Amino acid sequence: MHSTHQKGVVGELEFSLHLMKKGFSVLTPIDPNSSYDLVIEKDNIFTRIQVKYCTPKNGVLRVELDRKKRTTKPYREREVDAMAAYDSVHHKFYLIPIKDIKSIGEIWLRVENSKSVQKKNMNLAEKFEI
User: Fold this and answer.
1) pTM
2) In terms of Cα–Cα distance, which of 65, 63, 74, 67 is closest to 110?
3) Does residue 70 register a pLDDT over 80?
4) How far is the CA of 4 from the CAs of 8, 24, 54, 118, in angstroms?
5) For the residues 46-50, what does the mean pLDDT come to?
6) Burial zone of 113 (CB within 10 Å; 0-12 exposed, 13-18 middle, 19+ buried)
7) Cβ count near 49 (within 10 Å)
8) Residue 82 contacts residue 42 (beta carbons within 8 Å)
9) Range of the domain at 8
10) Number of C-beta neighbours around residue 67 at 10 A
11) Cα 53 from Cα 51, distance rounded (Å)
């Protein structure tokens, strides 16, 4: 099992490689305390993203937007344009614009069909797949 830090590094590298294959330029900040992990650019549009390594549980990815023990501002209030979620089991990549996130602490993405027929208030991962 990898440490949290190692998972974060793997998530950033996997996401970077995936985006480069899709034609994005990928930039990394020199400052490790930056609000974002990567800056991506395509067609002169720059996007600052925070990458999260996620493992699905019960068909859902939980993307944390804040750490309870940290005293920093939540990502929503920092200079981040989107959250990136790397699904480590299905090897899928999701890019969620900050403006689409309603919660302060987390967003849940459904990556597998639900056993119930409920669709309302559900974030389907395919909407954010990149």
Assistant:
1) 0.83
2) 63
3) no
4) 6, 27, 11, 33
5) 94
6) exposed
7) 24
8) no
9) 4-128
10) 10
11) 7
Look at residue 49 in the predicted model and tell me its pLDDT.
94
Overall number of domains in the chain? 1
| Residue with the larger pLDDT of the pair 69 and 95 | 95
Task: Determine what percent of the chain is predicted with pLDDT higher than 90.
Answer: 40
Average pLDDT for residues 75-84, to the nearest whole number?
78
Per-residue pLDDT, averaged over 95-101, amounts to: 88
Beta bridge partners of 108: 62
Terminal C-alpha separation, the chain: 27
Locate 41 and state its tokens. 């650019």
Q: Label residue 118 by pLDDT band (50, 70, 90).
A: low
Query: Which secondary-structure segment (H or E) carries 108?
Result: strand 106-110
Residue 65 belongs to domain with CATH number: 3.40.1350.10
As a whole number of angstroms, the distance between CA 114 and CA 3 comes to: 30
Q: Is 91 left (phi over 0), alpha (psi -120 to 50) or beta?
A: left
